[in-house]
Amino acid sequence: MMRLKHLSAVIFFVFLALFSFRHSQVFAREAGEPKKTYSFKTVPNDPLHARIYTLENGLTVYMSVYKDKPRIQTYIAVRAGSKNDPSDATGLAHYLEHLLFKGTSRYGTMNYEKEAPLIREIIDLYEAHRATSDTLAKKAIYHRIDSLSNLAAKYAIPNEYDKMVGSFGAKRTNAYTWVEQTVYMNDIPANRLEQWLTLEAERFREPVMRLFHTELEVVYEEKNRSLDNDNSKIWHNLFAGLFQKHTYGTQTTIGTIEHLKNPSIQKVIDYFNTYYVPNNMAICISGDFDPDETIRMIDDKFGGFQPKPIPEFVPPVEDDIQQPIVKDIYGPDAEDVIIGFRFPGAESEDADMITLIDKLLYNGTAGLIDLNLNQKQKTLGANSFTVVMKDYSAHVLSAQPREGQSLDSVRALLLGQLELLKKGDYPDWLLQAALSDMKLEQIKSYEDNYNRAKAFVEAFVWGMDWEKYTAQLSRLERITKADVSRFAKAHYKNNYVAVYKKTGVDTTVEKVEKPEITPIQVNRDTVSAFAKKVITTKAKPIAPVFIDFKKDIRSFKIQKSIPVFYKKNTENQTFNLYYILDMGTNHDKTIGVALDYLPYLGTSKYSPEELKEAFYKIGCSFSVFSSEDRLYVSLSGLSEYFDKALSLLEEVLWDAQPNEEALKNLIQDILKSRADAKLSKNEILWKAMLNYGKYGEKSPYTNILSKEELQSLTPETLLSLIKRIPTYEHRVLYYGPESEKALKKTLQKLHRTPKSLAKIPDAPAFKEKETGENQVFVVDYDMKQAEILMLSKGGLYDKDIVPAATFFNEYFGKGMSSVVFQELREAKALAYSVFSSYTIPKRKEQSHFMAAYIGTQSDKLADAMSGMFDLLGTLPKSEVLVSSAKESILEQLRTERVTKSDVLFYYEDAKRLGLTDDLRRDVFKKVQAMNFENIQSFYDKFVTGKNYHILVLGKKDQLNIKVLEKYGNVRFLSLEDVFGY
């Protein structure tokens, strides 16, 4: 489970004998000693040109040099996850992931000698608590734990890990735990590699289980969020059916409620000692670095870690599934059908086969599910995907029913596509086209260091040789259509698990109750000696690079009046082309429906299915979509087919043919999707309620066609709008390998437009609502948690305040070392997710907003609201956080690079804000001279003393309305109020 927070594991040098912790040393080399040489493995035809090292202690190191920007994506992977949890203490791997961010005996503490005995006593008390069944005795022990935890916390320095990585400009700092891996990630500046390695070596040397009881409460929050999440329930039931013996299905990553209530820190320590050893770990990096120097640094930092034998995990042999296993689950979200088939693990030939079959079924364009179900509007959003793991794999099919459609019929339609595979009832070219599509996906994926390093993690966790991992496409090329048919007949029978997600009340849901926790002291102004050394370590500076719009983007005109903005792709032979109009759903409510209609249409020459096939055969695709003020026509794919793909696209825009049946189905599906949106808490809060809080009853979100207007639409109306797209003023964006001259020639020839282009019509203005007084808007939703979003309207976009807003956000509420996070999550354990920021609009006619969010248990509502409003009323001061926030911003700006097609869209975004230069240049210059007084001044002017629209989503009978009334007039809103229908 992805951790919004992370934390640390325990160890105390005073109790080394008791804990048997691995104690590692870093050995410096004597002066004049010859440099050690390191052997590494490479693989022919490897798209990542990877080097794979194995240190003497068994640590695996994967490296790929990719200098797209002066940054390095890092992962440290441990080959242990929830499948390795003891059956009587599930959730250990996940606990440990959290605790690996809490520090060691050298950081995260002001005085470890005094802290350690208290932590030791807390550990023992948890064991006593776990062993006691008497309710009163357990409560008394927990009271003692709470008291001792507060004493121990006086020596703790929360979030010191985050402060250190933030100070040198790390991004994406996070971690996740799943069934057989725990992975720790950072995206770091290239000049901070040694600092990062120093910190990580210390982190894994001797983690200390400090601040355990507040972090345990955070895990409670995460558990309750999963109980409110229908998707989590689907996965739990699917895996429980597929894996009735394996811990994939018999255990969950977060753990059971019973085990959460009775945790064992000692077992977490034992787990760390067992699995967090170098021969069970890998460092995976991709980015801008020198491999030879880097492996020496890694060996210096990690080479002293001692290996240990790893307990063998023997996967249980699952019994064959003889008949379909059908499970019904209930929850507030829309109905869904999920079907899963079980297969052998990653190393098997079956894993290759289902990877290819998945593409034949669903590739987003011309797979069997794409054409037979989605294109023909037989279901809503049908798809296919694989879940490949070390011991077993799963192939999953899913779809949502259309209005009035039974879940049984949806299941039959999905299974019917497998029958076509068995018969070989699909065109011969599809197999090769699917392989070409996979190659294209890989090319695009490997343009990002995040995905490159992620591939290393995958291979390591599976225990798969890199040569085999990189050769998968070659293996797939040897599979024939006859092979697919034989495999499908042999493996896709009645041996599946089907989960029917139904809309209704789940009477089985329990809840992890809130324990009594005394807020701990937050020593935010204290820095350990270790952290100070890491933070103050100097590195060779990297000069920032900002975009010069005039130099970095080429422009010319076609048809005399259409501007083309051009950026050459020098890396590979793929392209992206966009037609962009400054016209969206605010201008015409029909636009969105017209664009949704277009994919279901053919032309005079092609049927809708033939058109999809024509694009897929040449490795290209197109899409059309709109926002409230923009319309995009997108074309992408292999450059060798650019001319052909562009001709097809123009044919679609100018010669789309009416389809009465498709429109009728589309309108039904839109109405069904609208009804489903009212069942989704994310849609309710982050779209409907958010827009209501900003605009009131009438907003861009509610600016949609009524049911009656939808049902009165005709194909001719929509086709007329589609065919007018190229006739309005627009511009072209291109990123690809074509020369400027060749591109201009192609566009002049193929892009069809009238002699003069029509002006974009005016759009009605949606005025953001002034926050005149505090108001509380509540929407009733069946959930265990309460989610609270607070909004206060500021002034119109002002580029001059962006540097100060950026500095304030980093300090106050953006990251895990921010004031808001430390106070409300770390000190008071009031939320799993909490943040706050002064928002930057996307358009110059929009306003800034002060926004704050906290997701908490309903019984913590009073404390959560009070805690957040305290911070919005009085700004805590921390010079340590000020320094960390400043350095984080500056280091990120020094090493951030806007490249590839992003340059074009960065320019588009700048124009919307009325900017003619890269605003990051101004932020970089001004933040350098800022201090706490600038943050305080910003806070006084834009934050404190403001009124708020407080949006609360939760179960009405579990919310304390009297508490809410303290913050403003409470008004209960219906779903119709916030959705407008």
UniProtKB/TrEMBL annotation:
<keyword id="KW-0378">Hydrolase</keyword>
<protein>
    <submittedName>
        <fullName>Peptidase M16 domain protein</fullName>
    </submittedName>
</protein>
<keyword id="KW-0645">Protease</keyword>
<keyword id="KW-0862">Zinc</keyword>
<comment type="similarity">
    <text>Belongs to the peptidase M16 family.</text>
</comment>
<dbReference type="GO" id="GO:0046872">
    <property type="term" value="F:metal ion binding"/>
</dbReference>
<dbReference type="InterPro" id="IPR007863">
    <property type="entry name" value="Peptidase_M16_C"/>
</dbReference>
<feature type="domain" description="Peptidase M16 C-terminal">
    <location>
        <begin position="717"/>
        <end position="875"/>
    </location>
</feature>
<dbReference type="InterPro" id="IPR001431">
    <property type="entry name" value="Pept_M16_Zn_BS"/>
</dbReference>
<dbReference type="GO" id="GO:0006508">
    <property type="term" value="P:proteolysis"/>
</dbReference>
<dbReference type="InterPro" id="IPR050626">
    <property type="entry name" value="Peptidase_M16"/>
</dbReference>
<dbReference type="Pfam" id="PF00675">
    <property type="entry name" value="Peptidase_M16"/>
</dbReference>
<keyword id="KW-0482">Metalloprotease</keyword>
<feature type="domain" description="Peptidase M16 C-terminal">
    <location>
        <begin position="265"/>
        <end position="435"/>
    </location>
</feature>
<dbReference type="InterPro" id="IPR011765">
    <property type="entry name" value="Pept_M16_N"/>
</dbReference>
<dbReference type="InterPro" id="IPR011249">
    <property type="entry name" value="Metalloenz_LuxS/M16"/>
</dbReference>
<feature type="domain" description="Peptidase M16 N-terminal">
    <location>
        <begin position="592"/>
        <end position="686"/>
    </location>
</feature>
<feature type="domain" description="Peptidase M16 N-terminal">
    <location>
        <begin position="73"/>
        <end position="115"/>
    </location>
</feature>
<dbReference type="Pfam" id="PF05193">
    <property type="entry name" value="Peptidase_M16_C"/>
</dbReference>
<dbReference type="GO" id="GO:0004222">
    <property type="term" value="F:metalloendopeptidase activity"/>
</dbReference>
<keyword id="KW-0479">Metal-binding</keyword>
